[in-house]
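Q: Predict the bound structure with zinc ion.
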Amino acid sequence: MKAAVVAGAKNIEVQEINKPVSDGKNVIVKSQTVGICGGDIHVWELGDTPTYKGTIMGHEHAGVVVDPGARTDLKAGDRVTTIPVSVGCGMCTACLEHRYDECTNRITGMGLSAAGLPGSYAEYFSADPQLVRKIPDTMTNEEAAMIEPCATPYSVVKDMGIKRGDKVLVFGGGIIGSFSAQWSKYFGADYVAMVEVNEYRGKKNLDEGNIDELFDGKDPDLLKKLLKASGGKGFDYVLECTGHAEPLNMAMMASKMYARIAIIGVAVKPIPFNNIVALFKRARLQAYLGYTNAEFDEVMKLVAEKKFDVSRHYSGGCTLETLNEAFEELHSPTSHKVKMMIQFPRD
Ligand SMILES: [Zn+2]
Ligand SMILES: [Zn+2]
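A: Predicted complex:
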């Protein structure tokens, strides 16, 4: 089968590799629609390092069952998605007490590194039967592939306890920032502001009603304007979704005393942190990666019931062969694309 393999820095190659084999346990899936994650862009950039060279990425997907393995409730041809990365099951005693490291049902992520499980940037992939979810008939492949990136911001906003009356500030209008804003609104936040340097992405969020107000990240008076917008004291909740130093430090300056600050953006290299501001603010910082299996299922249900829209973020398709171009496009700071997906040929 064909698979897209990380062959070097900013270089993905389509190679011929062995198909996953049926073992009576795992579910074998034929890929149909696979999203390009923001995290994948870092893997692509660092493609000449031992951790990532040889990686078959892909963890946001929809496909059809070829072999249901141990899942007696599934049959060949059923459309499925899978939970590819999770912090825990969300249902055992440890998970219910937020001690995800002690979860007994935890499974390694797929498509994240060369040593990990292969992902879905390939014609077929193999998935743990416990993590396969049937896609409801009301849900498109694009929506199903969007559940994964939507689940992290859901987990963050829910965990932070954002609610009616709160003022929320989001840094970054990519997929994670957009969903963070959208979930903040969903959970009742009174006022959601966004800081973005890419004008198109910022305006898109404003037009879609994900945010109440947009601020230009390049504005020299940004801090003054943010403090004014918060009512003078700073924001109750700040969600940093860019992984860059400037927004992280601005996040602390624009937050109120004891504010809760979420670090969601990924920085692949260490970034400078102005700790004195955090000290004076007694800031409560928490970093987030992933979600529980239970949270993935909650998001899936809300999307299936049309209570939460994810389809607005789909910005076009590519093929295995045009992946490098798609990555270049998504990597560009002026790109109009938010979420691109590989569309595999259907037979
Ligand atoms: Zn992802
Ligand atoms: Zn658990």
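A: The longest strand covers residues 27-35.
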